[in-house]
Specification:
- The complex is a heterodimer.
- By secondary structure, chain A is an alpha+beta fold.
- Chain A has ten helices and five strands; from the N terminus they run ααββαβααααααββα.
- In chain A, 52% of the residues lie in helices and 9% in strands.
- Chain A has a five-stranded mixed β-sheet with strand order 1-3-2-4-5.
- In chain A, helix 3 crosses helix 10.
- The longest helix of chain A has 25 residues.
- Chain B is mainly alpha-helical.
- Chain B has one domain.
- In chain B, strand 1 and strand 2 form a beta hairpin.
- In chain B, helix 1 packs antiparallel against helix 3, helix 2 crosses helix 3 and helix 3 runs antiparallel to helix 4.
- The chains are: A alpha+beta, B mainly alpha.
- At the A-B interface, helix 2 of A face helix 2, helix 3, strand 2 and helix 6 of B.
């Protein structure tokens, strides 16, 4: 039988360091706690950010978080639906409005399209401000006053050169005046805007649009089909609308 | 070069692999961790995972990236960290390739941002190339976790 050398071996073995299992468990625990906290913090910002009021603005179509049916009064029954997904702080949206806006507006007024506007607000998170939500709320208030399209045009016309500068409250009020909201209607609009009356609606629109796979702005849909990439000229849009008219 | 240096070279390569993969992960996590909503939307824009689950992945991902990155830079649990880092890179490569093949035009959101962009702005090829390089670092470390200047060496040996 060989002599037991374990004691001798243990004496010459290098001093044992800390236990890897314990350190590993601590590291794993820290990471798991970090992940749980991150998920909780991330999820918390999503719901109930508009305690001031959950009122739906005038013209909402398609249930919770649906867009504003801008021209319900004039749209012909056989007109195709044009869905517009835009963020008031998105430069390409301002560009789209510059090029296509007049044509879209005139088709809406003539009833050739059912124009449904979805005012998104995800850029607030990217730009770390709240101008998309505030302007979207203000536009929803303008819809209550029957002036959505005018307000929408006024905001995009005044979009700052540099993305992220945003809109001041004074600017939002100026847009209302430019849109032709006056007198008692302006007072109502101001109250609606200041109190964030449609803030929850604005959040709902973003949520519903994200769920529907709208991952960027502008997105333009004609009868549900994404036609954003085919938009070249106002004429091509008018032709597409004509082709989609039953 | 003498035999001493030749013997150490793989350890130095391992150190470089650790630092490259680790620093990139830390940077990618740090720029995203302060905007969880943006990170969630970036993952959702891939339209691979179910919407809500993709959101949770978006919230959790920056934390995991920072944690794995720190462990790699320190050289602590190098092999396990490299396994996680490598799996992350593999997942990113698959996700980006899938978005590319499906004709989505999105920013990978790897370092913040994300979501739909112009078709001409996409850079799927570059993104995949970068992640493949990082995956190579991870593979090296899984195969040969012994590296120069590591905590593993200081603490456990």
């Amino acid at each position: 039988m060989r002599p037991d050398a374990s004691k001798k071996l243990a004496a010459v073995a290098p001093k044992k360091g800390p236990n890897p299992a314990i350190i590993g468990a601590v590291v794993a625990a820290v990471v798991i706690v970090g992940v749980v906290v991150a998920i909780m913090v991330g999820s918390s910002g999503k719901s109930g950010s508009g305690p001031a009021g959950s009122a739906q603005p005038a013209g909402v179509t398609g249930g919770k978080g649906g867009g504003i049916f801008v021209n319900a009064a004039t749209a012909k029954s056989n007109a195709p639906t044009l869905d517009l997904f835009e963020d008031f702080q998105c430069p390409s949206c301002a560009q789209l409005e510059k090029v296509m806006g007049p044509e879209i507006t005139s088709m809406a007024k003539a009833g050739a399209i059912k124009l449904v506007a979805h005012t998104l607000s995800f850029l607030d998170d990217n730009l770390k401000n709240d101008s998309s939500k505030r302007s979207a709320n203000a536009a929803a208030c303008a819809s209550d006053a029957g002036r959505f399209l005018e307000y929408h045009a006024a905001v995009f016309a005044a979009q700052p050169e540099q993305e992220g500068v945003g809109y001041t409250d004074a600017q939002l009020t100026q847009f209302a005046k430019t849109s032709g909201i006056t007198g008692a209607a302006l007072t109502t609009w101001q109250k609606c805007t200041t109190s964030g009356q449609h803030a929850q609606y604005v959040t709902d629109v973003q949520e519903a649009s994200s769920r529907a796979g709208i991952n960027g702005t502008p997105t333009v849909k004609l009868n549900g089909a994404d036609i954003t990439k085919t938009l070249q000229t106002p004429e091509s849009l008018a032709a597409a609308v004509k082709a989609a008219t039953k | 070069m003498g035999p001493r240096f030749a013997g150490r070279l793989p350890n130095v390569i391992g150190l470089l692999a650790r630092l490259i993969l680790g620093v990139v992960l830390i940077v990618a996590g740090a720029v995203k961790v302060t905007s969880p909503a943006v990170s969630a939307r970036a993952v959702q824009a891939f339209q691979i995972l179910p919407f809500d689950f993709a959101g949770y992945v978006g919230y959790a991902l920056p934390v995991v990236e920072i944690a794995v990155g720190l462990l790699l830079v320190l050289g602590l649990f190098t092999r396990a960290s490299a396994v996680v880092g490598g799996l992350l890179m593999l997942a990113f490569i698959v996700g980006i390739a899938s978005a590319w093949m499906r004709g989505l035009t999105i920013d990978c959101g790897c370092f913040g941002g994300g979501g739909t962009i112009g078709a001409a702005q996409t850079q799927y090829g570059l993104d995949i190339l970068r992640d493949a390089g990082l995956l190579a670092c991870a593979v090296w470390l899984v195969a040969r976790p012994r590296t120069a200047l590591s905590l593993d060496h200081r603490l456990f040996r």
